Amino acid sequence: QLQFVESGGGLVQPGGSLRLSCTASGFTLDGYVVGWFRQAPGKEHEGISCIGSSSANTYYADSVKGRFTVSRDNATNTLYLQMNNLKPEDSGVYYCAAIQLPGTYYVVQATCIITILHGMDYWGEGTLVTVSS
I need a labelling partner for 72 at 20 to 30 A (CA). Which of 26, 52, 102, 114 fits? Predict the structure, then answer.
């Protein structure tokens, strides 16, 4: 069975940190562009960070640049998102997703900017992040 399992969400105060993890089973992440999509309350899904298979190319939405770091471990089939200096507007459900495409610079950018969550090949159930005092 092909699936993603996300973890690491929770309640955190503004300025705090969280690390999200996402582990794939039933397929290997090698050869896939993977990323994190966020759905804030009342809003559409937004691609906030993507990374190519070799980790050479990454994308960050302007809203998270400098605060979030995406990484992946193909050996353990796991994707991570380190989130620092969290703000209330970072609250939402975070989904990991994967699409089988070459991890070139422009493909990684386009995956996050253009592709909608349900246009990816696989996506998880999501993990809730709430940033509030």
Answer: 114
Query: What is the tens place of the pLDDT at every residue in 11-21?
Result: 999 999 999 99
Cα of first residue to Cα of last residue in the chain, in angstroms, is 39
Q: How far apart are CA 87 and CA 26, in angstroms?
A: 35
Q: Which residues touch 3 (CB under 8 Å, ≥6 apart)?
A: 24, 25, 26, 122, 124
Nearest to 120 by CA among 92, 103, 96: 96
Percent of the residues in the chain that have a pLDDT greater than 90, as a whole number: 89
- Rounded to whole angstroms, the Cα distance separating 67 from 89 reads 13
pLDDT in tens, 57-111: 999 999 999 999 999 999 999 999 999 999 999 999 999 999 999 999 999 999 9
